[in-house]
Amino acid sequence: MKNLLFIGLVCCSFVAKAQTNLILNGSFELNNSMQCFHEFNFTYEYDNTMDYSIDYGDKFTLGLIKSSCSTCLPLAYWGGVAQEGNYMLGIAGEKDTLIDGSVYIKQGGVSLELDSPLANGRNYKLSFWIKKPPPTFYPTYCLKDFRNNYISVGISSTNDAFGTNLITSPYGDTVWQQYSVVFNTQNAEEYITVKVGVNDTIDYGVFIDNFVLVETTEPVSVQELNGNNKQLLKIVDILGIESKSNKKGLLFYIYSDGTVEKRLVIE
Fold first, then answer.
1. Chain centroid to CA 134: how far?
2. Residue 15 within any structural domain of the chain
C-alpha cells in the first residue's frame, strides 16, 4: 500500500512539474475587462486592463474577446470560442495612407511577463495557438480583408521591445492551430513578445491564445532558429497584393526570419 502511495505521489509530482507554465498570463484570463469585445483605443488602456502584459505596439490593433458573450458577438460572426479559458486576444495591423499622402503603419505588439528570469544555458519549449478571423469578421467591422494571418514570437529582456525572434508561424486557419519551438537562452530574458506581420506587410489580423513556456530536455529547434533554413511566407507585388512567382514586374519575397528579397521579373 505504501509503495502504491509513493508511486502515486511521484506521478502527481511529475505531472505538476510538466504543467508549470512560466508565463504568468499566457491565456489572457487575468484581466479586469467588463466588455464582450474590448477594443483598446487609448494610451495604457491595454496595460491597465491586462495583468502581466504590456502593449508596445499601436493601441488600435488589439482586442480582447470573451467567449461567453455570444449576445453581443454571435459565435458564427467571429469564429467561435477561445482555445483555452474564456478569453482570446485579437492582434492586427494595417498600413493607412492619410489625406496628406503620408503613410501610417499600425502594427500590434505585446509582451508577456515570465514568473522569473530564464536560467542561462537551459532549454525551454514555447507553444501557442493562433486562429484566423473568419471572412465575416473584419470586413464587416472595418471593411478590410485581413489575409496575411501569422505572428512572430520572440524573447526579450525588456517589456517594450520585441527582442530576439524565436519563431514565425505559417498562415493561420479559421480553426485553432498550435505551433511550438525549443530554444536555449543565454541572456536571462524575462518576457515573451508577440508581434503581427513582417516588416511593412499590410492588412493582417489573427487571434492568439494559450501561450505556454516550460523547461525541457528536448533538443533546440534548429530549423526554426537557423536563418539558413528560413521559409518563404509569401510573395507580394509593389502594391502589397499577393502574387505568383511568374508574374512580371517587381516582386517582394517575404521570409519567416523577417527578411525581404526583391526580384524583378521581365520575361
1. 17
2. no
> Given this model, what pLDDT does residue 224 score?
40
Q: In this structure, what C-alpha cell is assigned to residue 76?
A: 458564427
Tell me how far apart the alpha carbons of residues 182 and 193 are, in angstroms, rounded to a whole number. Answer: 15
Q: How far apart are alpha carbons 191 and 111 in whole angstroms? A: 6
Nearest CA to 131 out of 80, 182, 70 is that of 80
The pLDDT assigned to 262 comes to: 67
Of 207, 205, 203, nearest to 242 (Cα)? 203
Note the pTM of the prediction, 2 decimals: 0.73
CB atoms < 10 A from the CB of 133, how many?
22
Domain containing residue 209: CATH number? 2.60.120.260
Q: Which of 246, 28, 254 is nearest to 147 (CA)?
A: 254
Q: What are phi and psi of 228, to 5 degrees?
A: -70, -15
pLDDT tens string 134-178: 665 544 444 455 556 788 899 999 998 889 989 888 777 778 889
